[in-house]
Design goal:
The protein has eleven helices and eight strands. The chain has 218 residues and is α/β, with parallel strands linked by helices. Helix 1 packs parallel to helix 3 and helix 8 packs parallel to helix 9. It is globular.
């Protein structure tokens, strides 16, 4: 499973990239707005930090403007994946950009039917939002299971399932069990994956015994 981080904070991205765990980055207008920086400048800097795909979202809702924005974003760097909403205009834009060799991430997916349409449009990634479905009393992970099963039924569909709106480590574990291709994870949740109280307890015991031994490796 690939790990993307969901942030526009370049310092956090740089820190996580150094761990070797990061395969890509997703951003959205809200995340970039939090930085208070120029949108294009932020995307370019992120593309310089990571080698993997960097999702950059269009701001328009009509096809013509969306397509032109997508071309502009794709021109920033070879690893830009243009992010478009799951609307008719978004799917049309997706189809055109993919024909031009651009990676496209279709976002705001909330049903298996929408995911089928995105795959038919040639999307590189489909982003189902599991946390937002949980928020309205549905099980967001059921959607992931459905999409993975549908995509696996057809060898000609190459769209990767990118689990988005992740709220906790169990979303990631369950995504792995279901065979999702990618999880895009907020930095704080990614760090939660590392932590376990028994790891901390075990390490403290090992270090205490090592100190008592009086030995050194270096």
């Amino acid at each position: 499973m690939k790990f993307f981080v969901d942030t526009a904070d370049t310092e956090e991205i740089r820190e996580l990239s150094d761990t070797g765990l990061l395969d890509g980055v997703t951003t959205n207008p809200s995340l970039v707005a939090k930085t208070g920086r120029d949108f294009i400048e932020v995307i370019k800097e992120i593309c310089d930090i990571v080698d993997g795909p960097v999702s950059a979202e269009v701001g328009a809702t009509d096809y013509e403007t969306m397509l032109e924005e997508g071309k502009r974003l794709a021109g920033i760097a070879e690893n830009v994946a243009v992010k478009v909403p799951l609307t008719m205009a978004g799917l049309k834009t997706c189809s055109q950009l993919v024909k031009q060799g651009t990676q496209v991430n279709v976002t705001l997916c909330f049903s298996p039917a929408q995911a089928i349409l995105a795959a038919k449009a040639g999307a590189t990634y489909i982003s189902p939002f599991v946390g937002r479905l949980d928020d309205i009393g549905q099980d967001g992970m059921n959607l992931i299971g459905d999409i993975v099963q549908i995509y696996n039924n057809y060898t000609n569909l190459n769209t990767e399932v990118l689990v988005a709106s992740i709220r906790n480590p169990m979303h990631i574990v369950n995504a792995g069990l279901m065979g999702a291709d990618v999880c895009t994870i907020p930095p704080q949740v990614l760090k939660q994956l590392i932590s376990h109280p028994l790891t901390d307890k075990g390490l403290a015991a090992f270090m205490a015994d090592w100190e008592k031994s009086g030995q050194k490796i270096l």
